[in-house]
Amino acid sequence: MERLLQYIFDGLSLGSIYALLALGLVVVFRGTGHLNFAQGEMAMICTFFTWQFHAWGLPLVVSVLLGMVAGFALGAGVEVSLIRRVAKKSEAGVFVVSIAMFLGFNSLAGMIWGNLPPEEMPSLFPDEPDDFVKIFGAVWRYEYIGIMVVALLLMGLLFLLFARTKFGLAMRAVASNPESARLVGIPTGLVLASSWGIAAAMGALSGAMVGGLAGELTSLLMFTPFIYASASATLGGFDSPGGAVIAGLAIGVGEQLAAGYAPGWIGQELRLGVALVTIFVVLLFKPSGLFGSAKVERV
Amino acid sequence: MLKINQGSPQHWALRTLGIAIIALVVVWVPTQMSTSRIGQFSDAFVLIIAAMSLNLVLGFTGQISIGHSAFFGIGGYTAAILIKDHGWSPGYTFYAAAVVAFVVGCLIALPALRIKGIYLALVTLAVAVLFPTLVKWKKLAWLTDGAKGIDSVRYDELPEWPVLGELKGRDGRAVFAYWLAFLVLVITYLVCRGLVKSRFGRSLVAIRDNETAAAVMGVNLTATKVLVFGASAALCALAGVLSTLRTGVITPEGQYVTLLGSIVFLLIMVVGGAGTLWGPIVGGLVYVWLDNTTRGFGSESDGVIGFLFGWSDQSPATLILGLALVIIMFVAPYGLVGLIKRLWAKVVLVVPKPAGTSLSTTGK
Amino acid sequence: MSLLSITGLAAGYGPLEVLHGFDLEVNQGEIVVILGANGAGKTTTMRAVSGMIPRRGRVEFDGQDISTASPDSIVRLGIAQVPQGRGTFADLTVEDNMMAGAYVRRDDVQADLERWFEVFPRLRERRTQRAGSLSGGEQQMLAIARALMSRPRLLLCDEPSLGLAPLITQELFGVLQKLNAEEGLSILLVEQNANLALKVAHRVYLLETGNVVSTGSAAELAADDSIRKAYLGS
Ligand SMILES: Nc1ncnc2c1ncn2[C@@H]1O[C@H](COP(=O)(O)OP(=O)(O)O)[C@@H](O)[C@H]1O
Ligand SMILES: [Mg+2]
């Protein structure tokens, strides 16, 4: 029972990071219909920005916020300068450009920061060995609680933005029918740039939390979280923000349970494998994810 | 501008000239160049084969796969295991690897058929990520040797191919690997060309352009897609075998076995020109050239390069690759072959035969 | 006084020129119909006026040059378009669709919402339903209501009758005529059904392959033999 609770709790905490990143993928996909393959690498670069701000003496919280601002600028800048231009030339071009960014950002981070010894990344939350409370026998580390709370809070804010604000309405309108959105006078360019910006800012926050958990930064920081996030978006349905969040949490919990209860068979190495295979099976029965609509066809 | 009628003597002369130049280069490389250069060309051939296999799926059916590194790995591991554990002669492992990959490819394609667009791309991404973890899985260590991989996979003795003369030592092995890769490349090219120009191939293009229309035309969608995916997997496995035989090792994190491999294949195809027969060839040569040229850029470089990249002690090769990709997407969104064709058309215009006599297009 | 004044309008898609430079005018308070066969360039004209595609020539709205203006600034100036095929936001609710129509407005829009719900009671019944789940006629009403939410002075309507039952079409045209008569809303309407068009129009333009080939009052065109043969089938 305690073990079960422990796995669920740990799973929800990690899952909320996947959910945050997955939500970023979904926001971009709904806006432009593209998979941003570089989502994880953009988050990684922003985490290095955060680290750099912190290294220059700013408080960590401020650094993370600045990292998110930098993320927004990076995401929006990429959309304006590359994505929308190449989208005019060829549909597949956007995917290729996002792969190019995946490679480019990864290499750039290595070139700028990689020659330092592995950097210490402080956590946003208390993370000493004894920073935890015991509830029903399960260990609730403050850091895990903090991650979960912050991630869920940000996602809650985003959902408010989508549902309650004029700008959110514009984002939903663009996702639903870009042509009509332009006709009613929505500045679609601004909306798309913001979508990319918001996604990258969320990535920056997840990066800071993943980095804090790992304790150090490398250019590989976000690769595995990105895979989990794309798995979550796939499972939830690529055009369903709510689906992405639920799926992210479910995958977090599921992999903890699988790894926890079948350590001999699955253990650490195959955790990711379990998640991926599950998704494959789900897609067989629901080819557009659990909560997605069937109209998603583009790459 | 020069105007030439398709099928006229001039046209044939032009084609013959083109083929002669290519043949000359192909022979020139192993006889005149350094061993390391020969190795680079062999590497390019391997990548071209892999990109061609991917091209079959994406270029001709419009399906995207980021999972082909897994088939590359399957090829490599099949060869390594058969040679090391079962004492097979390397030559036969090509057939075995192709069969294994074909079966696995079909098995993956079968359920993937229900899945489309971005979801299919992500399923293949999952396959690419899954393969190395599966190979490292401790329950499979008896077969794959886990994380450390399998080494010393090679020809104990090079087979004797009289045309090549006597091949000895390291240099001989390099020359042999070159010709072996070239042979497989030619076969792959012919298979792809045959598929594309056949009735079957035209049905592939029908699928790419319009599924409903293809269904109406009576193309069996399921069978076609599964077979194409299987064939593509098999060809990619050949590239894996070649690579393993050339380097002698295969590991779960090895070159082209991980997701990075899939990405490289994909870019080669895109840079060269997706959906064209010559695209992967141009793309592969350009990729290997760019990679080898930029790999050494860094703090030792001088001039502009030193100024641009000297500040870091890490190689900027991947960054440059990324930048090159972006530029190519802007100047040649349909790949270099498309660009070359466009430029070439300004010099020589091949006037097609009157309608009805021939459907094939010319020029490369 | 002319509200919309187009001179030498040329537009197309990429290298393909579809409109070859014609003139067209909509006066304040008029219903003007563009009549033309499929592919004549009617939709392209609407898209050019709304700023959705690059265009050459001069387009003036209320004395202001909008030849190079962006779609959102054109909506702000007071032109709203009901696109061909309705173009509703299928996965948004009816109410959200209408709110999106009011995107360019900064003042309170609640009263307008109520007002169009009065005019189209069926939309009120379905206000929380997804637009995609509405019937064709209801979607067309929604598209019109959405366009009206921006308080336009000129309404562009691209084939609103397409695929609708005659009764529904009549109802819709009734609403449009009423808005025109009572509020002085100017309307530029694209229609393929000439009988219908001539009934509601003050003036008509006949478009053939990107050129205006004939224009005049509805009565004049109805009297023209060659036009009767080609478009009225009698
Ligand atoms: N998006 C487009 N891209 C290229 N050509 C188009 C596009 N839309 C319309 N056309 C072409 O422009 C011409 C006029 O189309 P359109 O304005 O839609 O005609 P109408 O509305 O009168 O039926 C047609 O020949 C059509 O094929
Ligand atoms: Mg039309």
Please provide a written account of the structure.
- The complex is a heterotrimer of chains A (299), B (364) and C (234).
- Chain A has a single domain (2-285), classed as ABC transporter involved in vitamin B12 uptake, BtuC, CATH 1.10.3470.
- Chain A has eleven helices and four strands; from the N terminus they run ααααβββααααβααα.
- In chain A, the strands form two sheets. Chain A has a two-stranded antiparallel sheet.
- Chain A has 299 residues and is mainly α.
- Helix content of chain B is 71%, strand content 2%.
- Chain C has 234 residues and is an alpha/beta fold.
- In chain C, α7 (166-183) links the parallel β7 (154-158) and β8.
- The mean pLDDT of chain C is 92.
- At the A-B interface, α3, α4, α9 and α11 of A face α5, α11 and α14 of B.
- The complex binds adenosine-5'-diphosphate and magnesium ion.
- Adenosine-5'-diphosphate binds at residues 13, 16, 18, 36, 38-44 of chain C.
Structure characteristics:
heterotrimer, B: about 375 residues, mainly alpha, two-stranded parallel sheet, 15 helices, 2 strands, globular, C: about 230 residues, alpha/beta, six-stranded mixed beta sheet, four-stranded antiparallel beta sheet, 10 strands, about 40% helix, about 30% strand, binds adenosine-5'-diphosphate, binds magnesium ion
Chain-wise SSE layout:
The complex is a heterotrimer of chains A (299), B (364) and C (234).
Chain A: H1 2-32, H2 39-55, H3 60-89, H4 91-113, E1 119-120, E2 132-135, E3 138-141, H5 142-164, H6 166-176, H7 178-183, H8 188-214, E4 216-217, H9 223-236, H10 241-261, H11 271-285
Antiparallel strand pairs in A: 1-4, 2-3
Helix pairs in contact in A: 1-5, 1-6, 1-8, 1-9, 1-10, 2-3, 2-4, 2-8, 3-4, 3-8, 5-6, 5-8, 6-8, 9-10, 9-11, 10-11
Chain B: E1 2-5, H1 9-32, H2 35-61, H3 68-86, H4 90-112, H5 117-136, H6 141-144, H7 169-197, H8 199-209, H9 211-217, H10 221-247, H11 259-272, H12 279-295, H13 303-309, H14 317-331, H15 335-347, E2 348-351
Parallel strand pairs in B: 1-2
Helix pairs in contact in B: 2-7, 2-10, 2-11, 2-12, 3-4, 3-5, 3-10, 3-11, 4-10, 7-8, 7-10, 8-9, 8-10, 11-12, 11-15, 12-14
Chain C: E1 2-13, E2 16-27, E3 31-36, H1 42-49, E4 55-61, E5 64-65, H2 71-77, E6 79-82, H3 94-101, H4 110-119, H5 121-125, H6 136-148, E7 154-158, H7 166-183, E8 186-191, H8 194-200, E9 203-208, E10 211-217, H9 218-223, H10 225-232
Parallel strand pairs in C: 3-8, 3-9, 6-7, 7-8
Antiparallel strand pairs in C: 1-2, 1-4, 4-5, 9-10
Helix pairs in contact in C: 3-6
Bound molecules: adenosine-5'-diphosphate and magnesium ion.
Residues 13, 16, 18, 36, 38-44 of chain C line the site of adenosine-5'-diphosphate.
